[in-house]
């Protein structure tokens, strides 16, 4: 869902400092580094989720997404994903800087805590956290 990806990216870029969002946040994939040139990278991707709820006058949309962060400095990657997870968890209780009012954010919660994923061949550390959202069309 393009709206969710663009809105979360906009929100994170607006509220978090450059030492946390240390690379442009991209949709779906992390940048690939090499042994000679490891690359810092942050990605957001939509992942499988259950359907939303049906109501008499409409329905909600459920979307899950994953944040991935990568850095040759494992502590930097870990700090970044933890700060991002803290910002996004229960975001529906604060101001959400969305791209427009096509949807209304009902809930946004982390459902998998930040965790280490892998070390790449270029010695980059990857961390992730998973989130679930519920949206209403035409917020």
UniProtKB/TrEMBL annotation:
Pfam families: Phage_tail_terminator_6 (PF12691). It comes from the Bacteria. This is Minor capsid protein. Keywords: Plasmid. InterPro entries: Tail_terminator_phage.
